[in-house]
Write a structure and sequence with these properties.
Blueprint: H1 9-15, H2 19-22, E1 32-37, H3 39-47, E2 54-57, E3 63-68, H4 103-114, H5 118-125, H6 131-156, H7 172-180, E4 186-189, H8 194-199, H9 204-211, E5 229-230, E6 235-238, H10 245-262, E7 265-266, E8 272-273, E9 285-290, H11 297-309, E10 313-319, E11 322-323, E12 326-327, E13 348-352, H12 356-372, E14 376-381, H13 399-409, H14 412-422, H15 428-451, H16 459-462, H17 482-489, H18 492-511, E15 514-515, H19 516-530, E16 534-538, H20 553-557, E17 562-564, H21 569-580, E18 585-590, H22 600-612, E19 622-627, H23 643-646, E20 654-657, H24 661-673, E21 678-683, E22 691-692, E23 706-709, H25 713-717, E24 721-726, H26 729-735, H27 738-743, E25 747-752, E26 755-757, H28 761-771, E27 774-781, H29 786-797, E28 807-811, H30 820-823, H31 830-841
Parallel strand pairs: 4-6, 4-9, 9-10, 10-14, 13-14, 16-17, 16-18, 18-19, 19-21, 20-21, 24-25, 24-27, 27-28
Antiparallel strand pairs: 1-3, 2-3, 5-6, 7-8, 11-12, 15-22, 20-26, 23-25
Helix pairs in contact: 1-3, 4-12, 6-7, 6-15, 7-12, 9-15, 10-11, 10-21, 18-19, 19-24, 21-22
Length: about 850
């Protein structure tokens, strides 16, 4: 910073909000010198490696910079021009600091809310005299600050792209985490997670390389800044949708209880093995969330779940007073998030993020409470020095002034340095040396990222599914420990009851008397006995839900494996995702698939997880439910939505349908064995009506359609055959129309689309080679529906086989009415198919 460097006014304006977070080693202001700089000198201060912490005022004709002058740790060599401002204008923050907040405030909360005695707390207050522990805390905070500053530099150079969210000013939180959390603890964060990953033990080089979109990154460049995952350290995200991480962390906490109940543990690959966790197993799940995000309804839901199951779950609320950049009290009445658990019997604590030592002492005490007793909330009152992201304009009320003030008055690194230099714990030289050591690590991380290669283009497709679409699930072995786990977790009476139930269903299946709902129930029980890591979540589960899909699951496997859930599909789909990331195979039954609308965020993330994590985390989750829209359904619009079409665009999701007990049984078994997320749709009006035989003990492929009826050779020769593609209720409508079509001298190849994604183009092509005409009886809307996707694929890939345009019989875009007279205008049926076949064969299309 000894010589001015030219810089444009635009560059100064866009970069000025990083000034005071760039180098933190300054003490709290005891005397302030006000200096007026030309723009070139200011640029020098911004980018010089020895710059001190600055803050900015902006009068109409110049920048005004205030610099702490009481610390000799780092001093600026820039000379102020002769025309300085007469005095500095005082600033009152919109959100004041915690006034006169000391360890006494913290210890009072720990004794009154967490049951600690003063003698108990001596274990934690010992940190004040632990020079080694304090140095570790300081280095961890410096790593967080230095890493984020390096990220900002690399972002400005274009090496980091997309969205990036920095954590400057909140370093006491990763400092505490690094001291209190163990490797085996599950950690879930949100998009501002770089420092949380570092604090969890993830190496700086791979984190930086992930931001650089390099193959050496934690996720091979597939995740980026908002999606840091690291399997060896159990750092499980990095989630970009606000608050989505909450139920995932609850599911991870449930997986710890499952391990203890089933007496299973992870091997070196984190696969389950038949070894009980140690007697002193005290693993917990930790989830980070901002105070703005904690206003989301998911917060209340996980507090309920944590209290109900006494989950080992710690919720760390990072309270910087800003929901993105908006002043949180402008949009939320209650910012005391730590009190939200009171209604559920979950204690909470508020700490001052400026005082990192107190945050760490309190954090260790709260973590120990969670390890031994139950869930808790820890709210850290802090300030974020940077905007939501570097690209934000930050026009929100009071934001820029607050940042300047916070850098001067609320910097946890300044506070630490002042306190522990003043009391003689450290010298300035010791802290300088520590900072130099850390910055060398950061520099090495940037070098590692720079030198890492870009990932190969082929990797994108390789990360689509954990299991290839043509997997034969019959060949997948069952866990060797299944019989032992079942013997120690299912009583003799329970085992007798469930075997009798299974025997009854198998008799019905052989006799052709089993329903779709019972066929799915049979498959679920067989798979839950075959693999004890299989779990199930549903509403009304104890009663068997609406179609007996989860019948007798809780009565057999207990609440730990068969969970009755609150009425919010997003919540228990999210918990299932957390279990799936931690070695379990959750099944989610939706009473009606349209209710899955509540879980779109979680379903989307389930589809993305394998790819986003660079293939680190499988996502073996099976969602099953009754849905679709039958003619004369009389359920109204909300229960008649084509949810199967809504989820078609989610990457990584295998989507199947089943209009018969045989299909439902075989597909369910395969989906449960698949290592990725799968969704099975069954026809809501046929769940108890359709009956048939089942090929017992056989899994069906998840990439194949089924030819249910083949057009006669004569009709094909005469040009009077049509390929009909359909699914769900369309199968029944087509089957009852065959006789009428044949009476007209025509015939059809009837293909049931048992797999909507991936689509079986091979079977479609084989039929089209015979008929050269195709009709899609589609149970989704004309715009954005399944039929639209299939029609486009046929037109692109099989155009030369067509003698006529693809005929689509889709639902109208209007909502499905309740009255049957109006419904006919929206929902297509067998009579429409008969006419379409006639039109195609008579060249009327």
């Amino acid at each position: 910073a000894d010589a001015p460097i030219a810089a444009s006014p635009h560059a100064l304006r866009s970069s000025s909000h990083y000034l005071t977070s760039f180098h933190p080693l300054l003490t709290t202001t005891t005397k302030t010198t006000t200096m007026k700089f030309c723009q070139y000198a200011l640029a020098s201060a911004l980018f010089a490696s020895t710059a001190s912490a600055f803050s900015i005022n902006t009068p109409s004709n110049a920048f005004v910079v205030s610099k702490s002058s009481s610390s000799a740790l780092f001093s600026s060599t820039i000379e102020a021009p002769s025309t300085a401002l007469d005095e500095e204008v005082s600033f009152e923050p919109m959100r004041p600091p915690l006034k006169d907040f000391s360890w006494e405030n913290v210890s009072e909360q720990l004794t009154s809310k967490f049951g600690y005695s003063e003698a108990d707390l001596e274990k934690y207050t010992a940190l004040d005299g632990d020079k080694e522990g304090l140095m570790k805390l300081y280095k961890d905070m410096q790593m967080a600050r230095g890493f984020e500053n390096a990220c900002n530099q690399q972002y400005m150079q274009g090496k980091i792209r997309g969205f990036m969210h920095l954590d400057n000013g909140q370093e006491s939180i990763p400092g505490m985490v690094a001291s209190a959390i163990k490797n085996g603890d599950k950690k879930y964060s949100y998009y501002r997670e770089h420092t949380h990953a570092l604090a969890s033990g993830v190496a700086p080089g791979p984190v930086m390389a992930e931001l650089f979109m390099k193959e050496g990154g934690t996720c091979k460049g597939a995740g980026g800044s908002m999606h840091i995952f690291d399997k060896p350290t159990y750092f499980q995200g990095g989630w970009a949708l606000v608050s989505e991480q909450l139920p995932y962390a609850a599911g991870a906490a449930k997986s710890i209880l499952l391990d203890r109940e089933l007496k299973l543990s992870d091997d070196e690959k984190q696969d389950k093995v038949n070894v009980a966790p140690p007697e002193d197993d005290d693993r917990i799940s930790v989830v980070f969330i901002g105070e703005g995000g904690s206003q989301n309804g998911r917060m209340a839901e996980i507090l309920n779940a944590a209290a109900k199951d006494n989950l080992p779950l710690l919720v760390i609320v990072i309270d910087n007073g800003r929901a993105i950049n908006t002043f949180t009290p402008d949009v939320a009445t209650n910012s005391d998030v730590y009190k939200q658990g009171e209604h559920y019997g979950i204690p909470g604590i508020l700490v001052d993020g400026t005082n990192a030592a107190d945050v760490t002492k309190a954090g260790k005490a709260v973590v120990d409470y969670v390890r031994t007793t139950g869930p808790a909330i820890m709210q850290v009152h802090t300030y974020r020095f940077n905007g939501h992201s570097p690209a934000d304009p930050e026009h929100e009320r009071g934001r820029k002034g607050e940042k300047k003030w916070a850098r001067d008055e609320q910097d946890p690194l300044k506070f630490f340095e002042n306190k522990f230099i003043e009391n003689g714990t450290f010298t300035e030289d010791e802290l300088k040396a520590a900072r130099k050591e850390v910055l060398a690590e950061v520099k090495a991380a940037v070098k590692f990222a720079d030198e890492s290669p870009m990932p190969p283009v082929e990797l994108a497709k390789e990360l689509e599914y954990p299991d290839a679409p043509d997997t034969d699930y019959n060949l997948k072995p069952a866990p060797a420990f299944a019989d032992e786990v079942n013997a120690r977790t299912i009583s003799a009476d329970q085992m007798k009851t469930i075997h009798n139930h299974i025997a009854t269903l198998r008799e019905k299946a052989s006799a052709g008397e089993i329903t779709i709902g019972d066929a799915i129930n049979l498959a679920i029980h067989e798979e839950m006995l075959r693999d004890p890591t299989t779990t199930i979540h549903a509403e009304d589960l104890q009663a068997g839900s609406s179609y007996d899909i989860p019948k007798l699951t809780q009565q057999t496997y207990g609440q730990i494996r068969a969970a009755d859930e609150i009425i919010d599909e997003g919540h228990f789909i999210g918990k299932a995702l957390g279990e799936g990331m931690n070695g379990y195979r959750p099944i989610v039954e939706l009473m009606n698939t349209n209710f899955g609308i509540y879980g779109m965020a979680e379903i989307s993330s389930a589809g993305n997880t394998f790819a986003t994590t660079g293939g680190q985390f499988d996502m073996p989750m099976t969602i099953i439910g009754a849905g679709g829209t039958a003619p004369n359904q009389s359920l109204g619009a909300e229960h008649s939505q084509p949810f199967h079409a809504y989820v078609m665009g989610i990457p990584g999701l295998k989507i199947c349908t089943a209009a018969s007990p045989a299909a439902a049984y075989g597909i369910t078994k395969s989906m449960i064995r698949d290592n990725g997320p799968c969704f099975l749709f069954a026809p809501v009006k046929m769940m108890k009506e359709a009956k048939g035989t089942v090929d017992l003990d056989r899994c069906l492929p998840l990439n194949k359609a089924a030819l249910l009826h083949e057009a006669s050779a004569d009709s094909v020769a005469a040009g009077n055959a049509v390929t009909v593609l359909t699914y769900l209720h369309g199968v029944k409508e087509s089957q009852i129309s065959i006789a009428e079509i044949q009476d007209e001298g025509m015939d059809i190849d009837l293909i049931e689309l048992r797999t909507l994604k991936p689509l079986d183009m091979e079977t479609i092509a084989k039929s089209l080679e015979r008929t050269n005409k195709i009709c899609i009886l589609d149970e989704s809307t004309k715009s954005g529906g399944v039929g639209a996707t299939i029609s486009a694929a046929i037109s692109e890939e099989l155009f030369d086989l067509l003698d006529a345009p693809v005929k689509r019989l889709s639902m109208d875009d209007a909502p499905v009415p309740y009255a049957s007279s109006m419904e006919k205008a929206v929902v297509k049926r067998g009579s429409d198919l008969v006419q379409a076949v006639i039109d195609l064969c008579s060249n009327s299309v």
